[in-house]
C-alpha cells in the first residue's frame, strides 16, 4: 500500500451496500477516488432506512459524512429544502450531465436548477426472471408477448406441479409486483397520470380497475408459503427450478450468479411483455451535506466527478448488476440482462420513472398499505380504488 | 448522659393509632424498664424514641434538645431490635463493629470494644460466622453486642434476653447493670421477665394499650399498684382479687359474702364511703397457708392445684369460685389460707383505681 | 431549631437528593424534554426535519383515519395480553423448576436465556423458516406421514400474530426466568421449612406462598414485558414485516416506518404521543392501586 | 437391656427408606419438563447451527432441519474475519474492542445508577423522587428511535456527540428506567428493619448502600448484568448514531452482514456471525450462576 | 399418640457437628421439656425430629416407625419455629388455617379450630392482619396458633412463649397443658424459663453441647443434678458450690478450710474415699439466713448484695471469696448462713459427676 500523497482529500462516505457483491462494486469507486488523490473512509450501514437515518442524525448532530447514499428519489427533497446540502453544479457542468444523464434522473436530482446529487446507477426494479429448467418442464418455449400469454404460461407451470410465480409477500415486493403490472397492463400514460399527476379521476377509471384485477389475479399463482418470504428466498425457488418466474429488481441476478447460473443459459430475463414494454428507472445517488470547509467541498466535488465518470461506472455496474447512468461506458463486462437494459434505455420513450421518484416517501408508503390490504384481503377492486384515491388525497399537503 | 422527655407523643402505624398522647420523663442516667402486655406499644415507643417512626404529634426531647424529627444517627441512641435485624451478609464481628467503623473509631479501639462485648456475650468462637449460621440465642446476643459496643447516650433494649437461658440471662443482666453504671448512660429496657424488671429498674413503667399506667420504682409498683391492671399484670401469679364492699359500721372493714377483713389501717387516699364496691388485692406471697381452717383468720378452702416451681410452690385454693394462689416455701399441704392484713391493696370496683 | 424537620417529611437526607441528581437529569433532561419535543412536533407538519409551524391536530386526525394504525393498536392489545401472560407463566415455571437443585443448572439457565442474547434479525429469520408451511414444522410433520397436518399460522392473517407471540415468548421468557429466580432465591429458607411441616405440597407452596412473595419481581417482570410489548418491532420486521398484508402490524413499526422510511416525523410523533397516552391510561391506575397497597403495607 | 431386646425384636426385613432418592417421580417430572422445554428452546439454535455449516447451495434446497451434507467451517471463518461489510472485508471482529469499550462503562454506570436510584427510592424516599420515577417509567415506553433526534441535538450541544462518553450517556439514559425499577422492587422485598438498624448504627446514605445493600444485591445485580450486557452489547442503532465512526460496535458489522436489503444473503455466514456476536452475553449467562445466591437475607430478622 | 425414639443421632450443620450420638426415648403422650444453654443444639434437635435436617447418622423413630428419612409431612408432627417463620403474605387467619385447608379439613372444622386457637391465644381482633403489622409477641402467638390447630401426634415447641408477658405466658402455659391432656399428644418443648420447665414437664432433658446431660423428672433433676453443669444451670441463682474434701476420719464429713459438714446420711452411689476432692452443692433456698453467726451451724459472712425479686429476695453472702446465695421469703437482713444438710448434692471434682 502506497503512502497517500500529502494531505489527501479525506471523505467519509455513508452507504448501505454491504453484501459481498455490493462491496466489490463500491470498492471500484473507492479505488478510483484514491487514485484521484482522495482517501475514502467507508461508512457502510446495512438497511436503507437505517443508513439514511444515521446520515440525517449525523447531519443534525454536526458530524455529517462527506457524501451519503440516497435512492434516486424524493427521499432527499426535504434536506435540499432545508438548505443542508451542497450542490455539485460545477461537476455537473464539467461532465455535462444535462446531456448524458437520462431525463428521468435529472428530474429528480436537479432541484430549482441545481444538481444536488450525483447519480451512480440505474436499477430496474421489475425484471422478469424465469428458470429455463422450469419452463422446459412446463413445456414453455418462448417468453410471453402479452399479459394473456403470461397468464397462460403461469397456468402451464402450475399444471407441471411448479410454483408459477415465485413471490415474497412483503409490502415492498407487493409494490414492485404491482408497479410492474401497472406499467405493463395500464400503460405508461395511466401510470404517470396517477403517480406523477395524482389524478384522482384516473384512479377511479376502469383501466385502473383492470390493473387491480389483474394484479390480484397473480395471487393465485403464488404458493402458500409466500407471505413474509424474503425476496432472495423467492429467487432461490427460481434458481432451483421449483418456481417458474419471479418479478424482481435486477439485483436478483446476483443470486443466480452466486449459484453459478448464467443469464440466457440457466435463466432468462425480460423487462416485460408487449411491443415496447416500458423500462422502469430507479437507482442510487450520493448527496453532499453542506459544509463550508474548502477541503471537504473539494472532496465532495472529486467524489461526484469520480463516481459519475465512465471508467468507474463501467466497473461498478458490472459488479452491481445495475446499468450505468450514462451510455458512453464500456459495456463488455456487463451481463446479458444489463446489456438489454442499456439498449432499452436508448429509447427515451420507454424510460419510466419508478414510483419513488414521483411520490413522496410518505405517499408511496400509504399506497403500499393500500395495496397490501388489497392483495392479502378479500377486498374488491372498487374498494381498493377508493382507498388509493383516499391515500393520495390524505398525503398531499 | 442524656435525659429523655416525651410529651403528648402520638404514633400511628398503618391504620392503628398505637400510641396516643403518651408522656414520659426519664432522667439522665436512669435505668427504666418498660413492662406491658404483648402488643401494647412498647416496641413502637422505643422505635419512636430512636426516630424510626414518624411522630404524628407531640415532642421527643433527648438531652434537652428537640429530637422529634431528628435523624436517628443524630440522637445518640443505640437500639437492640426485638427482631434482631442483623446484617445477613456480615459476620458477627462485622455486625458488631459496623457502627463503630462508620463513625470512624480507630481500629484498635474497635477491636478492643468488640472483643470486650464478645467476651461478655460469650460470642468469642462465633465471631466469623454469619447470622444464618447461628442459633436463635446467639443471634440475639449479636444484636445486643451491636448496641453495646457503641457509646450512646441512650440505650434502648427491646426484650434483649428473651431467648437466652436463665444462667446466661442472669449473667448478662448483671453485665448490663455494670455497663449502665460504667457508662452512666440512660437505658430504656423492655422485658417480660419480671425478675429482670425488678432487678434492673431504677424506675419501671407499666404500659397498656399505648398508655402508661404507672411509672414508679419497682417496689412501689409491686407493693402499691395504681390500678387493677397493674395489680394483676405484675407478679407470678398476679394479685389475688376479692370483690366486696366497704363496711364502716363498727370499724372499717372489707366484707364479702364469705370473708371480712379489718382495713382500718389501710392508707386510704380518700376516706371510703359505706357500702362502696371495692376490690381487695393480696399478693400470693402474702397469703398464709395452713393445713386446716381452725386457726384464727384462716379460711378453709380445698386445694385445687399445686405448682412446683423449684425454689417454691404455688398452692391454689378454690374459695367459693375464686382461685386463691399462695406461694409456699416449704411443703405445707394447704387446705386453708389467711390474708396478711398489712400487705393488701384496695381498688375502686368501677374505676379500677387504687383507693 | 436543630435538625427539626416538619412532621410527615420523608427520611431523605442531602445525600439522597444528591444521589438522585442523575436520575432527575435523565428524567427531566431526556425523557420529559423528549416528550415535550415529540408533542410539539406532533402538531407541526414536519417531515424529515422538525418544522416550526403549527397545524393543529391535523396529524392526529390523519392518524386516526389510518386503518393500519388502528389495526396496530388492536394487534398490540391482543399480542400484549398473550405475550405477557405466556412469558410470566413460562418464566415462572422455568424458574421454579430450575430452582429444584437440578443437575446442570448453569447449562439449562443458559439454554433458556440464549435467545435473549441473539439478534432477532437472524433468529427471526429462523423462526420464519420454522413456521413457514413449505420449509418448517408443517413440512417435517407431513413428511412423517401426517399428510393433512397444518401449521401455517404465519401465512394466515388471523393467526400470524400468534406466531410472533411464540417467537417473542421464546426470546423473552428466559429473562423473566432469571428475574424470578433472583427473587425466588431471596426467600427465607425457614419459610420452606414451615411449609414442609404444614404438609403443603411443593407446587402449592409456590402458588400460595412464593408467588405472592415474588410480587416485586413479578411487577418488575410485568413492566419489562410491557415495555417490550409497546416497543415490539424487531421480531415483526424479521418474521413478517407486518404481513401478511397488515395483519401483524404494530405501533412501533408504524412509528418507525413514518420516522425513517416514510420521512414523516410529524405523524410518527403524533403516533408516539397517542401510544404514550394509551400506556399511561393502562399503567397509571395500576401504579396508583399499588401505591395505595404499599402505603397500607409499610411505614 | 430393654433397648437391646427391642432391637432384636424389630423385624430386620423392614427396609429402611432410602436416603433421599434422586429418582422420585416428582424429580423425573422436573427433568422431563426441563428437558422438553430445553428442546423447544434449542430448535432454532439447531437450525442456526446447521445452517451455519452448510454451503449456500445446500441452503437453497430449503431443508432447514437437514444435517449438512458437506459441512464447512468456511462461514464461521468468513463471519469472524472475512465477510465484507461495505468496503472493509474483515468480518465482525473489527468492532470487537469497540464493543467492549462501549459495553463495560455503559453497563457499570447504568447498573450503578440504577442501584443507587432504586435504593434511594425504596428506603429514603426523598420528596418528589416518586414523581421523577413515574416520569422515568413513562419514558421507558417511548420508542428509542423517537428519542434519537432530540438526543443528538442535546449531545451535540454539549459536544459529546459522536464520542465514547456520548454513547455511554445514551446507554445510561435508555437503561435507567428498567435498572431503577429492577433495583427499587428488589429492595422493596428486603426487610425494612435492616435499613433501620443501619440508620441507628449511624450509617449515612452511601455507607448503608455500599456496606449493607450492595452485598445483599448480588442476585439482582446478575439480572441487571444480564439485561444490560445483552442490550448494550447487541445494540447497533445507538452505537451507529452516537458512537462516532471510530467507536462503531461490532453489531454494526453484524447488521451489515445479516441485514442487507438488496444484496445477496449468505445465510450461513449470517448465522455464524450472529452466534459469534452473542458469545459474550452467553458466557455471562453461563457463569452468572454462582451469584444467584440462595437466601441472601437468611438469619437477618426474626418473625 | 406416638412415642419418639432417637438413637445415636448425628447432625451436621455446615462445618459444625452440632449433635453427636444423641439418644432420647420419649414415651407416647409424654410432655418433655428440653433445657440447655444457648447454642447447645435444642433447635437443631427439634428440626431433626421434624425432618428438616438431614441426619448424618443414627435413627429417629416416631410411633414405632422409622422416620429418619421420611418427609416432614409424613411424620405427624407440628412445630413452632423459634423464628416464627410466618407466611408474610397471608393474614393471621390464613397463616393458621393454611395447613388445614391443604389437607382437606372441612371448612366448618377449620373455622372452629382457628377460632378456638385465636381465642386461646387472644388473637381474635388480629385475624385479618398480616404478620408485618403485628408486634413481636403477637407474631409468636400466631406461630403457636399455626401449630396447635393441627392434630399432630407430636408437637414440637421451640421457645414458644419467650416473647410474651408473664401473665399471658402463665395463661398459655396452662392452656398448653390442657391441650396436652385433651389431645394426648406427645410434646417436646424447648424453653429457657425454668418455671415453665418445672410446671409443664413430665420429664426434662438438660442438654449441653449437643449431648443430653440428664433426662429425668423436673423434681429429680432439680433435687439431684447428675453433674456440676446441671447443678449450676438449673435454678436462679444456681446451686451454691463449695470445693472441699471428704474426711472419713471420725464419721463422714465434707471439709473445706472454713467449713465442715456431716454428710453421713448422704446417699452415696459409691462409697467415698478419704481425701477425695469433691464439690458440695446447695440450692439457695436450702441456705438458711440469720442476722449473725452465733446460732449453731451458721457461718458468719458479710452480705454483698440483696436482690429484690418481688415475691422473694436473694441475699448474697461473701464467704471467703465465694458468693453464697440464699433465697429469703421475709425481710431478714442476713449476715450469717447455714446449709440444710438434708438437701445437699456432692460431685466428684474431677469428673464433675454426682457421687
Ligand atoms: N447453619 C448453620 N451452620 C453452622 N452452624 C450452625 C448453623 N445453625 C446453627 N449452627 C450452630 O449449631 C449450634 C446449635 O444451634 P441451635 O440453633 O440448635 O441451638 P439452640 O440450642 O437452639 O440455641 P438457642 O437457645 O440459642 O436457640 C449453635 O452453636 C449454632 O452456632
Ligand atoms: N405496621 C403496623 N401496622 C399496623 N399496626 C401495627 C404495625 N406494627 C405494629 N402494630 C400494632 O401496634 C401495636 C403495638 O405494637 P408493638 O410492636 O409496639 O407492641 P409491643 O408492645 O412491642 O408488643 P410485644 O411485646 O408483643 O413485642 C400492636 O397491637 C400491633 O399489632
Ligand atoms: Mg415488641
Ligand atoms: Mg434455638
TrEMBL record, chains B, E:
A GO term, aspect molecular function: ATP binding
Superkingdom to which the source organism belongs: Bacteria
PROSITE patterns: ABC_TRANSPORTER_1, ABC_TRANSPORTER_2
SUPFAM superfamilies for this protein: MOP-like, P-loop containing nucleoside triphosphate hydrolases
A biological process term (GO) from this entry: carbohydrate transport
Xref: Pfam families: ABC_tran, OB_MalK
GO cellular component entries: ATP-binding cassette (ABC) transporter complex, substrate-binding subunit-containing
Coiled-coil positions: none
Domain ABC transporter: 4-234
UniProtKB keywords: ATP-binding, Cell membrane, Membrane, Nucleotide-binding, Transport
Xref: SMART domains: AAA
PANTHER family cross-referenced by the UniProt entry: ABC TRANSPORTER ATP-BINDING PROTEIN, MALTODEXTRIN IMPORT ATP-BINDING PROTEIN MSMX
Name assigned to this protein: ATP-binding cassette domain-containing protein
Automatic annotation (TrEMBL), chain C:
Domain named ABC transmembrane type-1: residues: 73-286
Protein's name in the database: ABC transporter permease subunit
InterPro entries: ABC_transporter_permease, MetI-like, MetI-like_sf
One Gene Ontology biological process: transmembrane transport
Chain ranges passing through the membrane: 76-98, 110-130, 160-184, 205-230, 265-289
Principal location class: membrane
UniProt family annotation: Belongs to the binding-protein-dependent transport system permease family.
A Pfam family: BPD_transp_1
Membrane topology listed for this record: Multi-pass membrane protein
Entry GO terms, CC: plasma membrane
Keywords for the protein's UniProt record, in alphabetical order: Cell membrane, Membrane, Transmembrane, Transmembrane helix, Transport
Species lineage: Bacteria, Pseudomonadati, Pseudomonadota, Betaproteobacteria, Burkholderiales
Compartments, record wording: Cell membrane
From TrEMBL, chain D:
Coiled-coil residue spans: none
PROSITE patterns for the chain: ABC_TM1 (PS50928)
Subcellular location, principal: membrane
Domain ABC transmembrane type-1, residue spans: 96-288
Keyword Transmembrane helix: yes
One BP term from GO: transmembrane transport
Transmembrane segments: 28-49, 102-124, 131-152, 164-183, 204-227, 269-287
Keywords for this protein: Membrane, Transmembrane, Transmembrane helix, Transport
A Gene Ontology term for the protein's cellular component: plasma membrane
Subcellular location: Cell membrane
Superkingdom in the source lineage: Bacteria
Keyword DNA-binding assigned: no
Membrane topology qualifier: Multi-pass membrane protein
InterPro entries named in the record: MetI-like, MetI-like_sf
Protein family per UniProt: Belongs to the binding-protein-dependent transport system permease family.
Name this polypeptide is given: ABC transporter permease subunit
Source species: Pseudoduganella flava
Amino acid at each position: 500500500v502506497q503512502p497517500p500523497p500529502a494531505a489527501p482529500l479525506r471523505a467519509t462516505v455513508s452507504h448501505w451496500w454491504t453484501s459481498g457483491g455490493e462491496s466489490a462494486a463500491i470498492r471500484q469507486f473507492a479505488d478510483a477516488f484514491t487514485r484521484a488523490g482522495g482517501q475514502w473512509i467507508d461508512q457502510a450501514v446495512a438497511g436503507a432506512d437505517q443508513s439514511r437515518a444515521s446520515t440525517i442524525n449525523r447531519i443534525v448532530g454536526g458530524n455529517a459524512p462527506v457524501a451519503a447514499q440516497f435512492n434516486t428519489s424524493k427521499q432527499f427533497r426535504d434536506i435540499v429544502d432545508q438548505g443542508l446540502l451542497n450542490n455539485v453544479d460545477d461537476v455537473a457542468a464539467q461532465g455535462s450531465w444535462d446531456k448524458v444523464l437520462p431525463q428521468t434522473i435529472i428530474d429528480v436530482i436537479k432541484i430549482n436548477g441545481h444538481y444536488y446529487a450525483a447519480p451512480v446507477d440505474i436499477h430496474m426494479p421489475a425484471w422478469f426472471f424465469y428458470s429455463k429448467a422450469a419452463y422446459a418442464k412446463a413445456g414453455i418455449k418462448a417468453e410471453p408477448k402479452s399479459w394473456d400469454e403470461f397468464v397462460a404460461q403461469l397456468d402451464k407451470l402450475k399444471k407441471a406441479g411448479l410454483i408459477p410465480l415465485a413471490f415474497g409477500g412483503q409490502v415492498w415486493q407487493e409494490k414492485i409486483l404491482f408497479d410492474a403490472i401497472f406499467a405493463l397492463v395500464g400503460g405508461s400514460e395511466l401510470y404517470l397520470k396517477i403517480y406523477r399527476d395524482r389524478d384522482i379521476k384516473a384512479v377511479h377509471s376502469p383501466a385502473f380497475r383492470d390493473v387491480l384485477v389483474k394484479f390480484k389475479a397473480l395471487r393465485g399463482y403464488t404458493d402458500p408459503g409466500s407471505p413474509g418470504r424474503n425476496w432472495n428466498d423467492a429467487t432461490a425457488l427460481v434458481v432451483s427450478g421449483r418456481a417458474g418466474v419471479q418479478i424482481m429488481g435486477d439485483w436478483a441476478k446476483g443470486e443466480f450468479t452466486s449459484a453459478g447460473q448464467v443469464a440466457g443459459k440457466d435463466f432468462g430475463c425480460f423487462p416485460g411483455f408487449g411491443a415496447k414494454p416500458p423500462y422502469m428507472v430507479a437507482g442510487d445517488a450520493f448527496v453532499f451535506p453542506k459544509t463550508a470547509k474548502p477541503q471537504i467541498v473539494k472532496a465532495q466535488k472529486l467524489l461526484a466527478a469520480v463516481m459519475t465518470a465512465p471508467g468507474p461506472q463501467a466497473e461498478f455496474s458490472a459488479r452491481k448488476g445495475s446499468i450505468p447512468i450514462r451510455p458512453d461506458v464500456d459495456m463488455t463486462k456487463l451481463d446479458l440482462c444489463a446489456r438489454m437494459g442499456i439498449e432499452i434505455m436508448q429509447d427515451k420513450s420507454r424510460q419510466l420513472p419508478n414510483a419513488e421518484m414521483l411520490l413522496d416517501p410518505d405517499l408511496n408508503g400509504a399506497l403500499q398499505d393500500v395495496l397490501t390490504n388489497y392483495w392479502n384481503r378479500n377486498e374488491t377492486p372498487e374498494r381498493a380504488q377508493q382507498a388509493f384515491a383516499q391515500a393520495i388525497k390524505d398525503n398531499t399537503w | 448522659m442524656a435525659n429523655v422527655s416525651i410529651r403528648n407523643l402520638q404514633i400511628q402505624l398503618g391504620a392503628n393509632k398505637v400510641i396516643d398522647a403518651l408522656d414520659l420523663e426519664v432522667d439522665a442516667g436512669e435505668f427504666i424498664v418498660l413492662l406491658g402486655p404483648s402488643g401494647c406499644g412498647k416496641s413502637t415507643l422505643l422505635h419512636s424514641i430512636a426516630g424510626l417512626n414518624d411522630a404524628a404529634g407531640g415532642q421527643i426531647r433527648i438531652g434537652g434538645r428537640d429530637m422529634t424529627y431528628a435523624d436517628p444517627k443524630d440522637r445518640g441512641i443505640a437500639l437492640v431490635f426485638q427482631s434482631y435485624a442483623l446484617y445477613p451478609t456480615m459476620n458477627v464481628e462485622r455486625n458488631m463493629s459496623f457502627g463503630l467503623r462508620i463513625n470512624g473509631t480507630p481500629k484498635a479501639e474497635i477491636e478492643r470494644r468488640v472483643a470486650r462485648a464478645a467476651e461478655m456475650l460469650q460470642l468469642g468462637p462465633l465471631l466469623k460466622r454469619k447470622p444464618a449460621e447461628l442459633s436463635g440465642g446467639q443471634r440475639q446476643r449479636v444484636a445486643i453486642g451491636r448496641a453495646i459496643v457503641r457509646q450512646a447516650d441512650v440505650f434502648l433494649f427491646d426484650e434483649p434476653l428473651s431467648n437466652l437461658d436463665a444462667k446466661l440471662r442472669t449473667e448478662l443482666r448483671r453485665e448490663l447493670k455494670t455497663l449502665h453504671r460504667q457508662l452512666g448512660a440512660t437505658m430504656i429496657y423492655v422485658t417480660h421477665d419480671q425478675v429482670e424488671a425488678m432487678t434492673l429498674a431504677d424506675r419501671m413503667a407499666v404500659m397498656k394499650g399505648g398508655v402508661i399506667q404507672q411509672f414508679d420504682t419497682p417496689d412501689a409498683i409491686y407493693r402499691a399498684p395504681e390500678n387493677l391492671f397493674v395489680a394483676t399484670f405484675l407478679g407470678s401469679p398476679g394479685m389475688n382479687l376479692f370483690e366486696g364492699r366497704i363496711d364502716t359500721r363498727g370499724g372499717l372493714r372489707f366484707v364479702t359474702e364469705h370473708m371480712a377483713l379489718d382495713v382500718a389501717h389501710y392508707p386510704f387516699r380518700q376516706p371510703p364511703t359505706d357500702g362502696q364496691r371495692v376490690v381487695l388485692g393480696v399478693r400470693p406471697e402474702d397469703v398464709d397457708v395452713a393445713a386446716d381452717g381452725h386457726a384464727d383468720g384462716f379460711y378453709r378452702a380445698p386445694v385445687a392445684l399445686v405448682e412446683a416451681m423449684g425454689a417454691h410452690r404455688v398452692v391454689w385454693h378454690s374459695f367459693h369460685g375464686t382461685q386463691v394462689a399462695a406461694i409456699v416455701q416449704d411443703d405445707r399441704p394447704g387446705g386453708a389460707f389467711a390474708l396478711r392484713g398489712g400487705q393488701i391493696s384496695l381498688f375502686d370496683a368501677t374505676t379500677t383505681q387504687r383507693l | 431549631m436543630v435538625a427539626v424537620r416538619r412532621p410527615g417529611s420523608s427520611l431523605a437526607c442531602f445525600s439522597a437528593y444528591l444521589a438522585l441528581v442523575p436520575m432527575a437529569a435523565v428524567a427531566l433532561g431526556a425523557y420529559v424534554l423528549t416528550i415535550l419535543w415529540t408533542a410539539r412536533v406532533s402538531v407541526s407538519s414536519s417531515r424529515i426535519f422538525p418544522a416550526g409551524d403549527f397545524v393543529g391536530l391535523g396529524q392526529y386526525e390523519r392518524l386516526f383515519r389510518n386503518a393500519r394504525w388502528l389495526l396496530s393498536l388492536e394487534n398490540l392489545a391482543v399480542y400484549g395480553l398473550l405475550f405477557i401472560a405466556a412469558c410470566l407463566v413460562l418464566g415462572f415455571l422455568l424458574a421454579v423448576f430450575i430452582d429444584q437443585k437440578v443437575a446442570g443448572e448453569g447449562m439449562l439457565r443458559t439454554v433458556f436465556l440464549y435467545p435473549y442474547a441473539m439478534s432477532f434479525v437472524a433468529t427471526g429469520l429462523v423462526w420464519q423458516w420454522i413456521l413457514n408451511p413449505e420449509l418448517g414444522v408443517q413440512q417435517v410433520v407431513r413428511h412423517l406421514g401426517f399428510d393433512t397436518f397444518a401449521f401455517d399460522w404465519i401465512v394466515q392473517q388471523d393467526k400470524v400474530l400468534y406466531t410472533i407471540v411464540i417467537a417473542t415468548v421464546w426470546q423473552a421468557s428466559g429473562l423473566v426466568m432469571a428475574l424470578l429466580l433472583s427473587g425466588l432465591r431471596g426467600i427465607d429458607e425457614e419459610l420452606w421449612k414451615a411449609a414442609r411441616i404444614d404438609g403443603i405440597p411443593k407446587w402449592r407452596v409456590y402458588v400460595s406462598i412464593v408467588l405472592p412473595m415474588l410480587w416485586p419481581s413479578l411487577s418488575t417482570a410485568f413492566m419489562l414485558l410491557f415495555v417490550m410489548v409497546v416497543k415490539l418491532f424487531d421480531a415483526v420486521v424479521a418474521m413478517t414485516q407486518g404481513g401478511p398484508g397488515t395483519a401483524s402490524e404494530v405501533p412501533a413499526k408504524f412509528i418507525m416506518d413514518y420516522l425513517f422510511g416514510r420521512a414523516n416525523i410529524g405523524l410518527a410523533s403524533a403516533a408516539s404521543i397517542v401510544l404514550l397516552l394509551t400506556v399511561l391510561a393502562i399503567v397509571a391506575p395500576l401504579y396508583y392501586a399499588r401505591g395505595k397497597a404499599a402505603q397500607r403495607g409499610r411505614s | 437391656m430393654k433397648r437391646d431386646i427391642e432391637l432384636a425384636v424389630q423385624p430386620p426385613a423392614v427396609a429402611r427408606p432410602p436416603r433421599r432418592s434422586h429418582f422420585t417421580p416428582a424429580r423425573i417430572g422436573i427433568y422431563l419438563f426441563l428437558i422438553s422445554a430445553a428442546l423447544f428452546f434449542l430448535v432454532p439454535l439447531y437450525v442456526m447451527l446447521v445452517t451455519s455449516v452448510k454451503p449456500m447451495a445446500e441452503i437453497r434446497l430449503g431443508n432447514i432441519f437437514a444435517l449438512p451434507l458437506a459441512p464447512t467451517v468456511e462461514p464461521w471463518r468468513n463471519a469472524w474475519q472475512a465477510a465484507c461489510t461495505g468496503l472493509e472485508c474483515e468480518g465482525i471482529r473489527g468492532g470487537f474492542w469497540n464493543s467492549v469499550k462501549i459495553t463495560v462503562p455503559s453497563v457499570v454506570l447504568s447498573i450503578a445508577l440504577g442501584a443507587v436510584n432504586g435504593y434511594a427510592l425504596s428506603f429514603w424516599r426523598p420528596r418528589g423522587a416518586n414523581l421523577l420515577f413515574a416520569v422515568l417509567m413513562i419514558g421507558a415506553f417511548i420508542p428509542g428511535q423517537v428519542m434519537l433526534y432530540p438526543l443528538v441535538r442535546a449531545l451535540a450541544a454539549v459536544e459529546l456527540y459522536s464520542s465514547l462518553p456520548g454513547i455511554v450517556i445514551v446507554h445510561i439514559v435508555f437503561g435507567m428506567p428498567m435498572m431503577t425499577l429492577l433495583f427499587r422492587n428488589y429492595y422493596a422485598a428486603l426487610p425494612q428493619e435492616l435499613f433501620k438498624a443501619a440508620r441507628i448504627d449511624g450509617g449515612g446514605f452511601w455507607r448503608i448502600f455500599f456496606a449493607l445493600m450492595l452485598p445483599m444485591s448480588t442476585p439482582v445485580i446478575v439480572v441487571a448484568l444480564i439485561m444490560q450486557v445483552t442490550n448494550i452489547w447487541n445494540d447497533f442503532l445507538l452505537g451507529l448514531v452516537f458512537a462516532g465512526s471510530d467507536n462503531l460496535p461490532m453489531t454494526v458489522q453484524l447488521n451489515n452482514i445479516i441485514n442487507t436489503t438488496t444484496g445477496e444473503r449468505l445465510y450461513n455466514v449470517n448465522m455464524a456471525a450472529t452466534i459469534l456476536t452473542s458469545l459474550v452475553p452467553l458466557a455471562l449467562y453461563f457463569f452468572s450462576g454462582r451469584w444467584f445466591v440462595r437466601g441472601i437475607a437468611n438469619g437477618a430478622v426474626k418473625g
